[in-house]
Amino acid sequence: MDRRTPPGLLRTVDRALLVLLAFERNRSDWGVTEIAEEFGWDTSVAQRLLATLAGRGFLVSDPATRRYRIGPAAMRLGRLWDRSGTLELLARPVLDELCRRTGDHVLLCVPDNFHMRCVAAAEGRAGPLRYYPLVGELYPAHAGATSKSYFAFLPDERRHLLFRGRPMARFTERTVTDPDLLEEEFHQVRARGYAWTVGEYDTGVATVAVPFFLGREPYGSLSLGGPEERFPDGPEDRLDALRQAARLLESRLTTPPRGTGRAPRK
């Protein structure tokens, strides 16, 4: 993450946003001194920034430890993001270009409890996969590359909580419902960096998918799919294009498009 304030923008606001972006799964709380050392600021600057963010509810201070955690105002913005359509807006050029390069159906999906929900799609040359829109469809966590490419990259203990002791439906004769076999597949997907399935969720449909990340966290999956006859040699000839698209998507979700961040001239 670039920590330099772009020319023309307010440094104090930028610093406050850098503080918020410093919180991740493996770093859920910060102290004043730690923030000051992390960014090379005076302790007094770090204190004022943290106190201001806490004052607006974006952080919460633990009175016992004097350490700060993400607050409820951040949750409110997160919920607004889910319904805003901004993800589809940012992803659309990436999906359309990937569809143009491969000719396959392209799906962008995010987790929704024990499913992956399609939030954007581009239709390939083979014609519709469904008689209803792809956007909004829920894909089960245990069946198909679209889901497996995401769930494979969750921490093992979190994935175990989701999959152990849960009944899983069989959609085709190739659907895997045994938790131990699924766990083996998840480790294989994580080792090679992508998921590849044929006929696990829909008979005759092949899918290759990769995860995309926000920071170190898996956020969703990007997949290519179509009739299995379109993949006579497997997924290898599409992997470069798919991985490049995922990296470009990550960039668009973490770096604002050039020219949109400057304050307007008066």
Automatic annotation (TrEMBL):
Domain HTH iclR-type: 10-72
Listed Pfam families: HTH_IclR (PF09339), IclR_C (PF01614)
GO MF term set: DNA binding
Signal peptide extent: none
Residues covered by the IclR-ED domain: 73-255
UniProt protein name: DNA-binding IclR family transcriptional regulator
InterPro entries assigned: GAF-like_dom_sf, HTH_MetabolicPath_Reg, Tscrpt_reg_IclR_C, Tscrpt_reg_IclR_N, WH-like_DNA-bd_sf, WH_DNA-bd_sf
Keyword Cell membrane tagged: no
PANTHER family: HELIX-TURN-HELIX TRANSCRIPTIONAL REGULATOR, ICLR FAMILY, HTH-TYPE TRANSCRIPTIONAL REPRESSOR ALLR
Keywords: DNA-binding, Transcription, Transcription regulation
Protein species of origin: Streptomyces demainii
